[in-house]
Write a structure and sequence with these properties.
This protein has one domain (about 1-245). Helix content is about 80%, strand content about 0%. It has helices at about 1-20, 25-35, 40-65, 70-90, 95-115, 130-145, 150-160, 165-190, 195-215, 225-245. Helix 3 packs parallel to helix 9 and helix 4 runs parallel beside helix 8.
């Protein structure tokens, strides 16, 4: 029964988060933890889940020429590299500190989605600032590896703050997240902490959910509504983890 419930949750999470081009591991991991799954097992599952579920969306974006490679490449290179460092260092950090960081990450991303507004909506930047984009990639990769998420929740708000077009950000995030997620997962695999049955259940459901979510997103979906839904989910999960820690 629990396996079917986890599959249903994985499908729904991938569907919802693919609407914004983000990986759903950010919500799947605390849910798995609430089922009693150790955080060290939940993190690699979340990373692989992100890798598989967003690969299809990225292929679609490339085929339809929505992806700006000049902006994406620095983020991908640095997020991929730093995710390895984050995953490796996480084994030395106490569980409560990891959970505290996760709560902070959920809250930050939730409030950013809820309140941040771009006052220059018709003057989006078109250049590719290498240093800033590399820093975003490095930070996203480090947090991705440590927490077992894809880093999309960091890339999205920071690129919004830099003034990039939200549609372009969505495509770049969906492309970058599988790379940082994969490198983090491979590091956890090397450390020997992978539950293959759980990984298979979540990944299959995630692929189906993300594929349908991407198709649905391109049918004139209101991006403001999606952001509000995402923010509410993230903040509720942060609150639940705070209650559980107490």
């Amino acid at each position: 029964m629990t396996d079917f419930l986890i599959a249903d949750i994985s499908f729904l999470a991938a569907f919802i988060f693919s609407l914004g081009g983000a990986g759903a591991a950010i919500i799947l991991i605390p849910i798995l933890i609430s089922f009693g799954i150790p955080i060290g097992i939940a993190k690699p599952v979340g990373l692989f889940y992100n890798t598989i579920s967003l690969t299809g969306a990225s292929i679609s974006n490339i085929i339809k020429k929505r992806l700006d490679f000049k902006i994406a490449i620095p983020i991908i290179i640095f997020s991929f590299s730093f995710a390895i460092i984050g995953a490796w260092t996480s084994q030395f950090i106490p569980k409560n500190i990891i959970l505290g960081l996760f709560i902070g990450f959920l809250s930050f991303t939730g409030f950013m989605f809820l309140f941040y507004k771009n006052n220059k909506q018709e003057n989006y930047r078109e250049n590719s600032p290498f240093v800033a984009l590399s820093a975003i990639g490095a930070f996203a990769g480090l947090i991705s590896g440590m927490l077992g998420i894809g880093g999309g929740g960091i890339i999205l708000p920071l690129m919004l703050m830099l003034g990039f077009n939200p549609k372009k950000i969505s495509a770049i995030t969906a492309f970058a997240v599988p790379f940082s997620s994969l490198s983090g997962f491979l590091t956890y695999w090397a450390l020997g902490s992978v539950n293959w049955k759980l990984l298979l259940i979540t990944s299959v459901a995630g692929v189906i959910g993300a594929t349908l979510g991407t198709i649905f997103m391109h049918k004139n979906l209101n991006s403001k509504t999606v952001k509000k839904i995402l923010s509410i989910i993230l903040l509720l999960m942060a609150l639940k983890l705070i209650i559980d820690m107490g």
